[in-house]
């Protein structure tokens, strides 16, 4: 019984030695080079992101205006209907309520389509930006011989932040 316990202890010690040896030898090599890049800043400050935002505004601006105008028109019509409801014949009031409800449904449909189209196009544009940023980042990683690039962190020392390098390369 005691012999089994001793064998287990020896096996555990041997296993732990096997696990720690690579870590110890790896720690003796050159330290890892770590960097940080802020995707949020790239999406907000890069020239290609600003161009994409402008393109999206041109593409969807008119539809957004139509939806805003439609909302204002429905609110005005609803207020007028509330005001005139007491003096309108019931048939006219019901007809106007139905028309107003139909306009509202149509406007909601347009608004949903606008949101879906805008989100889809925004995702396409972000994907293009990320693809280009990743190409630039890879070249910076190779150039600086980095081992790890972190994109999200609780704290970042400005010394390892390479976001400005990525932004300047993207803006060329």
UniProtKB/TrEMBL annotation:
Q: Superkingdom of the source?
A: Bacteria
One GO cellular component, as annotated: cytosol
Residue ranges spanning the membrane: these are none
User: Which Gene3D superfamilies does this one have?
Assistant: Skp domain
Q: Which GO terms describe its biological process?
A: protein stabilization
Q: Which family does it belong to?
A: Belongs to the Skp family.
What is the name listed in the Swiss-Prot or TrEMBL entry for this protein?
Periplasmic chaperone for outer membrane proteins Skp
């Amino acid at each position: 019984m005691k012999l089994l316990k001793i064998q287990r202890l020896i096996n555990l010690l041997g296993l732990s030695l096997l696990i720690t040896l690579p870590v110890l030898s790896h720690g003796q090599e050159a330290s890892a080079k770590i960097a940080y890049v802020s995707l949020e800043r790239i999406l907000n400050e890069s020239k290609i992101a600003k161009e994409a935002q402008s393109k999206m505004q041109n593409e969807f601006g008119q539809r957004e205006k139509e939806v805003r105008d439609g909302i204002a028109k429905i609110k005005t019509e609803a207020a007028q209907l509330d005001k005139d409801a007491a003096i309108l014949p019931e048939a006219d009031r019901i007809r106007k309520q139905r028309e107003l409800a139909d306009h509202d449904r149509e406007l909601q449909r347009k608004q949903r389509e606008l949101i879906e189209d805008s989100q889809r196009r925004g995702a396409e544009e972000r994907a293009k930006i990320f693809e280009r940023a990743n190409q630039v980042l890879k070249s910076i990683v190779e150039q600086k011989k980095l081992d790890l690039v972190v994109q999200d962190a609780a704290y970042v020392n400005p010394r390892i932040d390479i976001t400005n390098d990525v932004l300047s390369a993207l803006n060329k």
